[in-house]
Structures are given as structure tokens and as C-alpha cells.
Amino acid sequence: MAGLEDKALGVEKNLSYHSDVSDTAHCSYKNEYTDLIAKSLSAFLEHTAEPPGEIHAGADGRLNASDRLDWTAPALQ
Q1: Is residue 13 part of a domain?
Q2: If I label 42, which of 11, 16, 50, 61 is the partner at 20 to 30 A Cα–Cα?
Q3: Is residue 67 part of a domain?
């Protein structure tokens, strides 16, 4: 479920996002992050797995980057 920005930057598999957490306290570790962190470590540090490239949107089921970012990806050539 990568966005156009991810595709334009060539990072579709290199970016994971998880906002579907039980506690929304800012700057705290959530147990829900553990699986994606482990997968990313295996992919990028140990080179033993494929990058996860997973998106887990919040409880409302939406993830709209334009709500959070004031940026447009460059046009693909």
C-alpha cells in the first residue's frame, strides 16, 4: 500500500509505517512496533530477509500522507 511518493523515491519496500497502536502516548515504544522493527533489522542489517514495506494504518483504517506532509514527489522521468 505504498503511496506515489514512495514509488517516486524508489523506497516502496524500504518504508514501513505503523499507527494502529493501543496507546497514543507521544514518543513512547509500542509493542505493536516490534514485528516491523524485527523485519527491518533482518532486512537492512542482517541481509537475511526482504524489506517489509508494510503500512498499518490507525483504527480508522486510513493513512493519507497529504494530511501530514506538505510535500510533492518529483515527477518520474
Answers
A1: yes
A2: 61
A3: no
Task: Estimate the share of the chain in helix, then strand, then coil, as percent rounded to the nearest 5.
Answer: 30, 5, 65
Determine which helix (DSSP H) or strand (DSSP E) holds 40, and give its type and residue range. helix 34-44
pTM for the predicted model, two decimal places: 0.56
Domain membership of residue 54 (yes or no) is yes
For the chain, what is the domain count? 1
Whether residue 65 contacts residue 59, with contact meaning beta carbons closer than 8 Å, is answered with no
> Residue 13 sits in which domain range?
4-21+28-62
- The model's pLDDT over 1-60, given as tens digits with 9 standing for 90+, comes to 456 666 777 777 777 877 777 766 777 888 888 888 899 899 989 999 888 888 777 766
**Rounded-to-integer distance, Cα 35 and Cα 9, Å:** 24
Q: Would residue 44 count as lying in a domain?
A: yes
pLDDT in tens, 26-38: 778 888 888 888 9
